[in-house]
Amino acid sequence: MSRRTTAPLKTAPPPRGWAPIALAKASPLSHHFGERLSNKHYNQCIDGLTAGPPLRFEPEAQNRIALLYTAEERRRRDASPWTIVQAVLAPVQFLIFLISLVFVLRYLASGSGLALATGSVVVKTVALYAIMITGSIWEREVFGRYLFARPFFWEDVFSILVLALHTLYLAALATGALTPRQLMFLALAAYAAYVVNATQFLLKLRAARRQMTATGTLRLAS
User: Fold this and answer.
1) pLDDT above 60: residue 63
2) What is the pTM of this model?
3) Among 79, 143, 170, residue whose Cα is nearest residue 135
4) Residue 83 has what DSSP assignment?
């Protein structure tokens, strides 16, 4: 019985003129195919992003604020006698408001003191008319218009609402269109609007004073 041996397979030599082809290693999952190519790729990206004039950050332009008064308006404000009138009437009206609020709440809680409550709301309304009229004159002298000047536009808008509610109270009181309790609730609505309006002015003047201290120029954050 003959014995067979398995001989190793011999590959035939490549045809003449052919060059051997090396098998490439499996490429990684990344899209980069070599350090040199990768660096070139990122360098091109960086060059594209940095092309053109350099970026400049201008905080003053980004935080630009509007002047509350120009130099001329500030001069007119300081020279106007109505500035002092406004400075006096504002705290006086607020004091009247506090006293009247106590009378109105007392009447709503106990049902007594109607005359005091009614009279105090009338006095508060008269004070409001006084500060609105003199304030319009002051605004005309300083800014050249009676209402809705640029620095106090929204304050004036809300002041009209406050004035309308107080006027509605007087009209309802004169015509008897509302009961006493309804009149007091209307007065509370007018007072709530007044508090919002007063807060508007206080916040604006506080911001102006703070910026005047910080920069030496009376400014208002826009």
Assistant:
1) no
2) 0.65
3) 143
4) H
